Amino acid sequence: MLITLMRRYLRPYWVAVVLLLVLQLLQTLANLYLPSLNADIIDNGVVQGDIAYIWNTGILMLGISLLQAGAAVGAVYLGARAATAFGRDVRRDLFSTVQTFSAREVGQFGAPTLITRTTNDVQQVQQVLIMMFTIMVMAPIMLVGGVFMALQEDVELSMLLLVVVPVLLVCVGLLMWRMVPYFRAMQSRIDTINGVLREQITGLRVVRAFVRERREIERFDAANTALYDTSLGAGKLMAMAFPLVMLIMNLSSVAVLWFGAGRIAAGEMQIGALTAFIAYLMFILMAVMMSTMMVMMVPRAAVAAGRIAEVLDTRTSVAEPADPAPLSSLSDGAGPRGVVTFEDVTFGYPGAEAPVLHGLSFTARPGETTAIIGSTGAGKTTLLNLVPRLFDVTGGRVLVDGVDVRSLSTDDLGSLLGVVPQKAFLFSGTIAGNLRYGKPDASEAELWQALEITQARDFVEALPEGLDAPVGQGGSTFSGGQRQRLAMARAVVREPRVYLFDDSFSALDYATDARLRAALAPRTRQATVIVVAQRVATIRDADQILVLDHGRIVGRGRHHELLDREHPAYSETYEEIVTSQMTLEEAA
Ligand SMILES: Nc1ncnc2c1ncn2[C@@H]1O[C@H](COP(=O)(O)OP(=O)(O)OP(=O)(O)O)[C@@H](O)[C@H]1O
User: With contact defined as beta carbons under 8 Å apart, do 375 and 386 qualify?
Assistant: First the structure.
């Protein structure tokens, strides 16, 4: 998975990658060559007193050092560029894939993991990529080249490698092997801390209201201590790792000096060769250490790459039609009017045993208001979500002007709808920016008009910056009712064919609710309005009221018809809802 991801996303940067590999090769070879030149200076220059040789070789060494430094800088630069570009491209694709997801896929993954995958997991792979760019080229060359050069300097002394290398390999391998579980656990501990923190920040008011601060602090402490323990475990091993490696390296140097001194005394080796040998030994040991670390890090990155690929490979369940029906084909070729028809619609959430909606059939017409009322959990929001295709039906069809919503392109379908969700959501920015979300070229006059209709003009006018007043993330700087009215204004600015209001009026007081509906009526005269409501007062004038109970339509008609025991449309459920909110005299 890691390789596939890297191949796919590094392809545009292959020139930079090849160039950086060549530069790495150059600098590693230069690195390998320098100790040998140093040995030559000592043996042929210093020992023999040949000043000219020292100068010439010294200048050559300087040249090679400069070349090596240049190549190293170039390689690091190109590597960093390719790796960061890789990260940017993967994040971009993850984001645009998630944008295509329906509520089904988002629910299946969960928002937190989608965020972690786009940020943390990409970072993990990117880091390993940078390491690979250097170590993958450097380590094998340093290892093979180091052994080759060491043999060139002295074959007998090279036998020491047979002892030193396996010892280092085993020690570093063991340490890393014990560290990996800590690293894995660390990720999930960080996830837990994030989870607790997110919940507490979002639910801060509830925590305060129920005086649960102490309990919440304990919860956070537990998660925090778990992370501390894990980090400490990894830290202890890490603290051991460096001294251990240094000890092995120093002991090896001592061994080389010990045996080398004997060989020099016996006239079998020169001093320069001994210094070069020590340098090559260090190269070899470094290469072994880096390769071991690399081998241990790859599985972690592979896990991250797998998680990224899982998102990238997920196809949305509300797929775009291959051959979308043009808007002009709606209403039998007359163009969009906004007639919404549910035809024997059944819907069940993924993984749920029973459907939430059962065989719903109704038509909502332009110029009419269709209201949906029912107890909580009856399926009202679910029903509304099927029109903009947040989910697709599991049985039956949802039609707009006689065309199945699944046959329209999502852009076309969206252009017909003005949705006001149950939880009004605003984006950070300004009020004007939010209102123009569905119609970027709307004039200021249009924005004020929409605000007037949704009874939001007064409070926006009262803000010092007016339309340019800042909006906090999610709309946090406004009250629930203000947010709701701004969200409605956003839909009104768009002048859609179909308005979908999901319980948008319940955050308003009775008087504002009534004024808003009165102001909205002329604007929606040509449009289809579907309103989900809890309050009977909000919908008593609706042209058609659908009473929903456990996902079935158990009553349909106008307010008076549904209450009239003599009328065929009479609904006992509706009467129960009405009497729970007002006396029958008030309702009449
Ligand atoms: N994402 C989901 N996954 C699984 N089940 C869900 C999901 N959303 C809602 N449900 C279930 O579907 C049923 C209908 O929910 P829905 O939100 O449509 O009800 P509602 O009538 O709008 O309620 P309310 O008036 O409280 O908003 C409920 O039983 C709920 O538990």
Answer: no
Residue with tokens 């709701």, as numbered in its chain: 484
Residue 548 CA, closest ligand 1 atom number = 21
Which architecture characterizes domain 338-587 according to CATH? Answer: 3-Layer(aba) Sandwich (3.40)
Task: Tell me the CA–centroid distance for residue 503 and ligand 1, in Å.
Answer: 13
What are 228-276's pLDDT values in tens digits?
999 899 888 888 877 888 888 889 889 988 988 888 888 888 888 888 8
| pLDDT tens, position by position, 362-411 | 999 999 999 999 988 899 999 999 999 989 999 999 999 989 999 999 88
Distance CA 559, CA 578 (A): 10
CA 431/CA 582 separation, integer angstroms: 37
Q: Convert 502-561 into a string of H (helix), E (strand) and C (coil).
A: ECCCCCCCHHHHHHHHHHHHHHCCCCEEEEECCCHHHHCCCCEEEEEECCEEEEEECHHH
**Interface pTM, i.e. ipTM:** 0.94
Could you tell me which of 561, 505, 565 has the C-alpha nearest to residue 537?
505
Tokens coding 323: 């051959």
- Closest Cα to atom 9, ligand 1: which residue? 382
pLDDT in tens, 28-51: 889 888 888 888 888 888 878 888
- Domain borders along the chain are 1-142+309-316, 338-587
CATH of domain 1-142+309-316: 1.20.1560.10
Report the residue among 106, 108, 372, 380 best suited for mutation to probe ligand 1: largest number of ligand atoms under 8 A from its CB. Answer: 380
8 A C-beta contact, residue 356 and residue 384: no
Compute the chain's Rg from CA coordinates. Answer: 36
Residues with CB under 6 A from ligand 1: 107, 349, 352, 356, 374, 376-382
